[in-house]
Design brief:
It is a single chain. The relative contact order is 0.11. This protein has three domains: about 100 residues, Lipocalin (Beta Barrel); about 90 residues, Beta Barrel (Lipocalin), CATH 2.40.128; about 160 residues, Glutaredoxin. The strands form four sheets. The chain has a nine-stranded antiparallel sheet, covered by helices on one side. The N terminus is likely disordered. The chain is an alpha+beta fold and about 400 residues long. It is about 20% helix and about 40% strand.
Length: about 400
């Protein structure tokens, strides 16, 4: 009896300590930083609404996080869909730890402080430049192998700046920040990617540095150009000469091999989505495609996604696929085309009829006779505003045309 009473008191003491540590996690707004380079921090804002949920803010985007675990003085925050997670120690009104992407062996130092709502702290608290409008941008302008084009689309109210960069392979999603004097500072964190852009702006030109986590950085330059457009996304990827159809055979989560010769695709318009569960642009596209598919079941249209995963095992790749399907409510098949790497050259080997796999995502439109009618590279997501609306209108009209043929 004495042993039982002692054990019971120890258990109560342990639970009390655990509860005390958890209660140290204050509810409300927090300002986080990811250390992407020495003396360079990427900030973002989140709000803890309970010990089981929080919200991450990027301009108009609000990411709801319901996968939070607290053990003693440690909190683990796992964002929806993506594999990345934050692990940190709770200490009064601060958090200190790391942002981890295990599949890529990437770790970024993380810290957060309670009660601060400003994303960026301004040195001047006034804007000497206005970047509102469209910009012609070149990333890595001096390195031919890394050089690529982009279009900057920004809004500015006082010192607050929002917007994004569009590229031929997708956009950098919801960016938020400030114009601090003549320095533009923009950031975004969504659980998959951590983006930071810092640029000096002088009238109609800008020059800056782009940081993607702590594993990549590159310079960029831009000039104001309200009429600038990127190359047509429908002309970047195409079938090689001698090919007229797309062919593949990949497994689904049940282990069944699926191909375009299956009965479900016969006499149907088919949209083949080349994607990865780790890709934010693919997430935006998957949300739209899933919504379209679920609300247009009366049309002769089918979707099938081909996932190119960097997960190191087939089992982990399918775990990511199933998590994406469950979180978004995707009812069309997602097949595992590749795991262990998301390398685009390797991906092109799986689809040798394509001239290249330039982008995740890429959409291939196939008519009822099995002929490839169009290939759309990249995806302009909701952060691009009018471009997103244009894509949806173009997509709907083209699919409807193919469906009535």
């Amino acid at each position: 009896m004495k042993y039982f009473l002692t054990s019971f008191l120890v258990l109560i003491l342990f639970l009390s300590c655990d509860k005390e540590k958890s209660s140290d996690l204050k509810l409300g707004v927090w300002r986080a930083e990811l250390q992407v380079a020495p003396k360079v921090a990427l900030p973002f804002i989140f709000e803890i609404t309970s010990h089981q949920s929080l919200k991450i803010f990027n301009a108009e985007e609000v990411i709801l996080v319901n996968d939070i675990k607290i053990s003693n003085d440690t909190i683990v925050i796992k964002t929806p869909v993506f594999e990345g997670y934050i692990e940190a120690v709770i200490a009064e009104e601060s958090l200190k730890g790391r942002f981890v992407k295990e599949g890529l062996d990437r770790v970024v130092p993380f810290s957060a402080k309670y009660g601060t709502e400003k994303r960026f702290s301004a040195e001047t608290n006034s804007a000497k430049q206005n970047v509102a409008g469209h910009w012609e941008v070149v990333f890595s302008p001096d390195v031919a192998a890394d050089k690529y084009l982009a279009k900057g689309i920004f809004k500015q109210e006082g010192i607050k700046v929002t917007g994004t960069f569009l590229t031929t392979t997708g956009d950098y999603r919801y960016l938020e920040g400030i114009m601090d004097g003549n320095t533009m500072k923009l950031s975004a964190f969504d659980g998959a990617h951590a983006f930071l852009f810092i640029a000096k702006v002088e009238g109609d030109t800008m020059e800056g540095m782009f940081y993607s986590g702590n594993h990549w950085k590159e310079p960029f330059i831009g000039k104001r150009n309200e009429t600038y457009e990127l190359p047509d996304a429908n002309n970047l990827t195409f079938l090689k000469e001698g090919y007229e159809v797309l062919e593949f055979a990949f497994p689904d989560a049940e282990g069944d091999i699926v191909s375009l010769s299956d009965d479900r695709f016969k006499n149907k318009v088919v949209v083949v989505q080349v994607m990865g569960t780790w890709c934010p642009n693919c997430l935006d596209e998957s949300k739209y495609y899933s919504e379209f598919y679920n609300t247009n079941g009366n049309k002769d249209v089918e979707f099938v996604a081909l996932a190119f995963e960097y997960a190191k095992t087939k089992e982990k790749a399918f775990q990511s696929i199933n998590r994406l399907k469950d979180d978004i409510g995707i009812s069309y098949p997602i097949l595992l085309a590749q795991y262990g790497t998301s390398d685009k050259i390797k991906a092109q080997e799986k689809l040798p009829m394509l001239n290249h796999v330039l982008s995740y995502p890429t959409s291939i439109f196939i008519d009822k006779q099995g002929k490839v009618r169009k290939i759309h590279t990249g995806f302009n997501g909701p952060a691009t505003g009018e471009k997103y609306i244009e894509f949806k209108n173009e997509f709907t009209n083209f699919v409807n045309e193919l469906a009535i043929e």
